[in-house]
Amino acid sequence: MANKELLTSTLKKYFGFDTFKGNQEAIMENLLDGNDTFVLMPTGGGKSLCYQLPSLIMEGTAIVISPLIALMKNQVDAMRNYSDEDGVAHFLNSTLNKQAIDQVKEDVASGKTRLLYVAPESLTKEENIDFLKTVKISFYAVDEAHCISEWGHDFRPEYRRIRPIINEIGKRPVIALTATATPKVQHDIQKNLGMIDAKVFKSSFNRPNLYYEVRNKTNNIDKDIIKFIKERPGKSGIIYCLSRKKVEELAQILQVNDIKALPYHAGMDTATRTANQDAFLNEDVNVIVATIAFGMGIDKPDVRFVIHYDIPKSLEGYYQETGRAGRDGGEGLCITFYTNKDLQKLEKFMQGKPIAEQEIGKQLLLETAAYAESSVCRRKTLLHYFGEEYKEDRCGNCDNCLNPKKQVEAKDELCAVIEAVIALKEKFKADYVINVLIGKETNEIKSYNHESLEVFGCLPGTDSKFLGAVIRQAIIAGYLDRDIENYGLLKVTKAGMDFLSNPGSFKIVEDNDFSDSDEEVVAKSGVSCAVDPELSAILKDLRKKIAKQHNLPPYVIFQDQSLDAMATTYPISIEELVNIPGVGPGKAKRYGEEFVKVIKRHVEENEIERPEDLLVRSVPNKSKLKISIIHGIDRRIPLDELADSKGLEFDELLDEIEVIVYAGTKINIDYYISEIMDEDHLEEIFDYFKESESDDLEAAIKELGSDFTEEEIRLVRIKFLSELGN
Fold first, then answer.
1. pLDDT at residue number 298
2. Which end of the chain has fewer CB atoms at under 10 Å, N or C?
3. Residue 262 and residue 219 share a domain
4. Which of helix, strand or coil describes residue 142?
5. Domain range holding 480?
6. Strands 507-509 and 407-409
7. Which pLDDT belongs to residue 47?
8. Residue predicted with more confidence, 75 or 497
9. Residue 392 lies in a domain
10. Given phi > 0 = left and psi -120 to 50 = alpha, else beta, which region is 326?
């Protein structure tokens, strides 16, 4: 009872609140009683208060182990605002100089400091361990505790060392906190921190105010995002990208389109990163474009939208990042752009990692893909992933519920799936089970002699995508279970066995179609097609005429996408033409005059009102990175070394060089090609592009055959475009 009164009075005195939120009070009472405590609470639920307030009551200094410097600064500033003593909270991390570290240690030793934030890397330093041994510690708080688990979305190996260091410094109660943890990750955290017997406080993961939507990612994603933001003037939002390069590029594109935006990623210098974060918190800018390094613990309650430019690597990451929207209970729009191609890229990034890590990574990716492609209520899918049952069929606040698909009966298919899982002795994953059902004789199936099973080929001609939906929805319904510990092996539950004995109706919704084919994407969305087909045809004729004059294939003059963009936004000056994707100042100067004239005449003759709002200005093509690549090539730096020096994968460097040459800049990579390629090979590829009507890479690979690598073909295409087109 005394603890209860003390907590309430301290809450009022320092934080100005009269009541606690959710199970905060019970969590703090458990900690004040000296017990280990495990807190699972979604973003916005008030996790930080669970250790901040007890630190002001308990005797000694609370050690908060936190992975992010941005979070530490943010929370230390907040704690100092609550107290009239600056030394009440400090952080210890790599950004501090020796003088600052000495000041921190002096305040801790004197008893002024009630809360000390420590980065896990700093905690492992011998001099810090020796110092903390001399300090009276009230308790340890492990924030973002999912970092302990390799099944979590942000695994940090140094988190695995926390328990042994706590034992060395001196045992005290531990409170571990996370906003995202599947049952598997939860067990991992407790086991690793030696707190299996801790009292677990789990809040609901449901955030009813958040709207979830997955959109098809097309070539016009930048335009879609600009339109989305401009329809919400003055509202705060975060856009997450997977690569630092994309963060920088997108922030620039938003800026030139009059959107107040700044980039944020771990590769920026600390001062800039902090300044950008503060500008967002202080509402000097509306949008932050960031890698996942941004946002953990950032206390901005009125973020109105979170956009994922790329699909995240795991559903936990997705849940935590979307959780930064609408923390005040107000509007929170969570929009994700998805294409299967992004998954292939992410899988490629995993190559070179240990096999076990690759397997875990693939499982997490499959879960994310299943979420994106599924037509089931998104809230239901998400909550099931975190071990929580959502009893409603529709939440009414996600794209799948607002645009429901017709249900189809899948009773027979589910029975066949359950029979196959049993016949395979519950030792295989979903894709293997599907191959058995449709009768696909893979090498793996033959090696196990499973083509002789009675269930093999019992569903011939059934779409494997449909069976994938059956399996996923059967897991949500509780008929099947996926054994995460064993990389996703399928198991049959008791409910599944009962269903097989006495089958009832099992209706499912078919998955959404996020096709890899650019043609289908264009046909569905229409955004990549020319708005004015008549002008598009005129421009294609003009391109053909100019190509003939220069004895070049038409694509060398301008690509189809550039012509489509011209027939959509009607550029009538060279200055406007340079804003068209794939048109740099060089190309605009060389070929642009006639195109601009034709467009202007067409606009005047047809009294067309030019859609200025659709004109997405692009960043000048010679950005800092592109200029430094051109300089590197001028200095004849081998391209593989150049890629390393810029922090790029080799194919990413080729992407950049292709943009440079397509925009009209002449470069010479002969010095590199001659080192790695046979002259006959070079000539054969060069001649192919000379005769070809298209610069399409897949068509070239098909035509030229397996003697040539994709890399070789791309390099020669760059040489060809640069020499003959620029």
1. 63
2. N
3. yes
4. strand
5. 407-509
6. antiparallel
7. 86
8. 497
9. no
10. left
State the average pLDDT over residues 336-359: 78
What is the predicted pLDDT for the residue at 524?
27
Distance (Å, whole) CA 560 – CA 173? 65
673/712 Cα distance (integer angstroms): 8
- Whole-structure pTM over 0.90, yes or no? no
C-alpha 171: how far from chain center: 38
238 and 349 in a single domain? The answer is: yes
Does a structural domain hold residue 517? no
Phi, psi of 505 (to 5 degrees): -70, 140
> Which of 186, 432, 479, 457 has the alpha carbon at shortest distance from 316?
186
Which has more pLDDT, 405 or 85? Answer: 405
How many CB atoms within 10 Å of residue 217?
Answer: 22
Count other Cβ atoms within 10 Å, centred on residue 514: 23
Whether the CB-CB separation of 708 and 685 falls below 8 Å is answered with yes
3-class secondary structure per residue, 676-722: HCCHHHHHHHHHHHHHCCCCCHHHHHHHHCCCCCHHHHHHHHHHHHH
Cα within 13 Å of Cα(346), Cβ side: 23
C-alpha to C-alpha distance for 212 and 372, rounded to whole angstroms:
10
CATH code, domain carrying 336? 3.40.50.300
Q: Is the pLDDT of residue 299 over 70?
A: no
The number of distinct structural domains making up the chain is: 5
641-665 as b/e: b if 16+ CB within 10 A = ebbeeeebeeeebbebbbbbbbbbb
For residue 690, what is the domain's CATH number? 1.10.10.1390
Strand order in the sheet with 137-142: 89-92, 115-118, 61-65, 137-142, 174-178, 37-40, 199-202
Please tell me which residue, 675 or 180, carries the higher pLDDT value: 675
Check residue 452 and report its DSSP letter: G
Statement to judge: residues 47 and 183 lie in one domain: yes
- Give the ranges where 351-423 is alpha helix by DSSP (H): 355-373, 378-385, 399-402, 411-423
Tell me which of 615-619, 628-632, 686-690 is least confident.
Answer: 615-619
Question: Using CA atoms, how far apart are residues 644 and 40, in angstroms rounded to an integer?
Answer: 40
Q: Looking at the domain assignment, is residue 518 inside a domain?
A: no
Alpha-carbon distances of 266 from 154, 179, 269, rounded to whole Å? 14, 22, 8
| Residue at token pair 């070079």 | 682
Residue 183, both tokens = 């049952």
For residue 210, the cross-strand partners are 332
Query: Please, what sign has the CA dihedral across residues 309, 312, 315, 319?
Result: negative
The pLDDT-based confidence of 30 (bands split at 50, 70, 90) is very high
* Structure token digits, residue 200: 């677990």
What pLDDT does residue 615 have?
55
d(CA 43, CA 319): 9
Residue in the block written with tokens 């001659």: 674
**pLDDT band at 528; cut points 50, 70, 90:** very low
Say which residue, 43 or 316, is predicted with more confidence: 316
Residue ending a domain, choose from 580, 614, 648: 614
Asked if 188 and 219 sit in the same domain, the reply is no
**Is 16 found in the same domain as 165?**
yes
pLDDT of 526 reads 30
Same domain? For 314 and 215 the reply is yes
Query: Which pLDDT band holds residue 410 (cuts at 50, 70, 90)?
Result: very high
Does residue 522 sit within a domain? no
Question: Does residue 165 sit in the same domain as residue 41?
Answer: yes
Residues 378 and 483 in one domain: no
Count helices and strands (H / E) in the chain. 35, 17
Residue 429 confidence (pLDDT) above 80: yes
Of 184-198, 201-215, 576-590, give the lowest mean pLDDT range. Answer: 576-590
Band (pLDDT 50/70/90 cuts) for residue 174 is very high
* CATH label of the domain that carries residue 472: 1.10.10.10
pLDDT at position 569 is 80
Domain end residue (candidates: 202, 235, 267) = 202
Examine the pLDDT at 254 and tell me if it is beyond 50: yes
